[in-house]
Amino acid sequence: MDINEKYKDLWQIKEDTYRTIDLEKPLIIYMDGKHITTDHANYNFLKTPNFTNFLIDSAEKTCKKLHLEAELFAGIDELAVIIEEPIVLKKLDVGDNANYIDLIFMQHFIKFFWEKCPDAVFKSTIFTLNKEDISRYVQYRKEICYSAALWYIAKDHLSKEEYKELTQITDMEKLLKNKGYWEEFKENKQLREGIVKHVSPLNDILLQRFK
Predict the structure, then answer these.
(1) Which residue range is the domain that position 31 belongs to?
(2) CB atoms closer than 10 angstroms to residue 10
């Protein structure tokens, strides 16, 4: 009996922890910076370039490195990488293993991101959506960004006692208006709307050829 056969039960336990994904469906790689928005001293989202810009830049470099066409959405400290044709991921030679795909992307992403923010830590997950749900998902991320921006402005200027009981977006909007911070909120378009960007490595290759 060889070693693999001898410990087949342990090997199977490891295999059972893996999660596979359907490479025929659009793939989302979602990541969220840990304890970023609470650290206003080190991560100031009211100035640019900031954490959000670094998310987009690092994701774009990663997609180009791995030759992936994707839609990117970064909102404050969160990033969604939307790969509508994930079949191209087969060239990474990891099959349909979600753990491996996420890890490969994150290893490249972190390498680029740490050039700007070496202490940043991320939570990351990977999942698939039906194609018809992509626009709803992007809208969902945009609304989360808008909501987070309201609370960010409040935390930056107000005491916690002034907003800790508020849970509705309309109430927070009213608070910022009453306290005189609504114009600042409106002026920070990137903070409240995030950044959307399309990455197409093939277009970059064609542009280089015809320069």
Answers:
(1) 17-143+194-209
(2) 10
